[in-house]
TrEMBL record:
Location of the ABC transporter domain: 369-602
Keyword annotations: ATP-binding, Membrane, Nucleotide-binding, Transmembrane, Transmembrane helix, Transport
Residue span, ABC transmembrane type-1 domain: 72-335
Cell location: Cell membrane
Protein name (Swiss-Prot/TrEMBL): Lipid A export ATP-binding/permease protein MsbA
Membrane topology annotation: Multi-pass membrane protein
InterPro entries the UniProt entry points to: AAA+_ATPase (IPR003593), ABC1_TM_dom (IPR011527), ABC1_TM_sf (IPR036640), ABC_transporter-like_ATP-bd (IPR003439), ABC_transporter-like_CS (IPR017871), P-loop_NTPase (IPR027417), Type_1_exporter (IPR039421)
GO MF annotation list: ABC-type oligopeptide transporter activity; ATP binding; ATP hydrolysis activity
Amino acid sequence: MNYFKEILQFAKPYRKYGVANIICNIFYALFGTLSFVALIPVMKVLFQTTKEQYVEPTWQGITRSKEYLESYVNWYVTDVVNENQEQALIAMIALVLILFLLKNLAGYFGTYFITFLRNGVMRDIRNALYHKIVNLPISYFSEKRKGDVIARATSDAQEVQTSFLSILELIVKEPLNILFALAAMLLISYQLTIFVLVFIPVSGFIISLIGKRLKKQSDNVQREQGFFLSLLEETLGGLKVIKGFNAEGRMEDSFKNSTQRYYNFANKLELRKGLASPVSEFLGILVIGVLLWFGGRMVFNGSIDGAIFISFMGLAYGILTPAKAISKASYGVKQGNAAAERVLQILHTENHIKDKENAVEVSAFAKAIDIQGLTFAYEDEDVLKDFSLSIPKGSTVALVGQSGSGKSTIANLVTRFYDVHDGTITIDGHNIKDVKLKSLRDQMAIVTQDSILFNDTVAVNVALSDKSASDEQVIEALKIANAWEFVSQLPKGIHTNIGDSGNKLSGGQKQRLSIARAVLKNAPILILDEATSALDTESERLVQDALEKVMQNRTSIVIAHRLSTIQKADQIIVMNRGNIVEQGTHEELISLQGVYSNLVNMQSLA
C-alpha cells in the first residue's frame, strides 16, 4: 500500500471533492439500507401477517429504537391497512420509491465529486511526469528505451487511474453499505447476521490467495508493453534503413516475439483476475443458501416474521455487491501497485544536474570560458583526459578530429547536459556547477548536426526560446539564416506546419531553420556541433554563409567535420582520443605538416 499512499499525495489539492464524495456516500449507504428496511411494512401489508391490534408507540430513546420501529410498523399496518388496504400499499410503495430515488441521487453526486478528484489527480500526475522528463539529464535517456518512458507516462499512468483512483470511492462507499446493512440486520436478527459476518473474512482470505501473484504478472505486462512501444518508436524513426536493408522480416519477428510475450503475460493476468467475480459470487450465494435454510426454520417455528425475513434476505443479498466490489478493488490495488511503481520510479529519479542552493546568475557573458584539467568518461573508458582550453569572449574556437575523439563531449559538458567528473569549467570565473542552469543556458545557442524540429509551424520552431516573439522578429531571424527565401514560398509562410521532425523540408532547409532559432535567441555564445556535415554542396554554402553571419560578434565553439568551414577560426584544436595533439590557427597548423595538415590533404583529395 506504500505506492497507494504516495499516489494519494496528489489528491491533497482536491480533498474538498473527497469530503463531498464521502458525505454523499454516507447518504447513499443510509438510503440504500432504509430502502430495504422499508420493504418490511410493504410485505406486511401484502401478506397481512399481523393480526393483533396495536396502539401508536411513543419514542423512548435510541436504546429502544428497534422496539419503537417494530411497534410503529405493526401499529401502522393494523390500524391503517384495516381502514384502506390499497391506500396503505400505495403509501408504502411511495416511501420505498422515494428512498431509492434519494439513494441514486446521492450516488450520482458522489460520482460527480469523485470525478473531479480522479481526473485532477491524473492531470497532476501526467504534468509531474512531463516536468520530470524534461528536467532529467540527457544521460538518463541514453540508458532508457524511449518507448518504455512513453509507456510509463501513458498506459501505466492510465492504469493508476483505472485501478488506484477508482477504488478511492469504493474504500468509503462499499464499506459504508456493508456497515449500514449489517447494523440493520443486527437489529432484525443477530443470529442470522452471524453467518454474514463469517462470510466476509473467509471470502476475503480466499480471494487474497488468488490475487497474490497479480502484482508480478501486471508488472510483466506493463514492462513488455514498454518494450514493444520502443520497437514501434524505433521502427518509425528508422523506416528508411529497415526498407533499404530489407529488414522488414527481422523487425517483424522482434515485434511478434514481444507481442507474443505480452499475450502470454496478459492471459495469465486476466485469467487470475477473472477468478475474483465467480469466486466471490459463489461464496455469497453459498451464504444466502445457508441463510435461507436457517432463516426458513426460524420462520416455521415463529422466531421471526416472514415479511421481516424477506427484507433481511434483501439486505444480506445487498451486501454481496459491495463485497464483490471490494474483492475486485483488492485485485486493482495489486495491479495498480505495479503501474504506480513504474510511474513513481521516474518521479523519484534523482536529478543530479540541478541548481545548488546558492547558485549565481550570469547576466551577460563578459570575459571567457575556461576549461581546466577536464577528465570525463561516459562509462568506463575516458573520453577526455586532462583537457584544458581557454575561449576568450568574441573568439571562434574549432574542435576537429576523428570520430570518438571527444569533440561533442566538450559541447555536452559546457552546456552542462552532463556534469564534469574531474576538472572544472568556468564562465567569467564562475564554476558552471555554481551557476543557475537557466542562466547558464541563456548565454548559449546550439545548432546540432541533426536538425531537431517539432511538428508545428515555422514560427513556433524558430521562436522556441521566446514564445512572445513577434512575426517580424521571426522573419528577421529567417533572413539572417538564409531561410526566408524558401519560407516565404510556403502556403502559409511562417505559420505553415512543417510536419513530424520537419520532414516536409529538405535537410538544408531544416538546418537553416535551426540556425534561425539560434539567431532569434541572440545568445552571446554559439555552439555549432557539426552543423554542415550532412549537407550537399549547395546547401552547405547557404548554411555556411548563414553561420558566418550569426558568428559575427559572438563567442563560437565549432565542432567541425568539414575542415573547409573552419579556416577563419581564431583557434583550431586538433583532438585524438580525448587529448589535444595540435593547437593554433589554420596557417600555423598547416605549416606544422602534422595531423591537421594530413586531415586537410585527405579531404581535399576526397
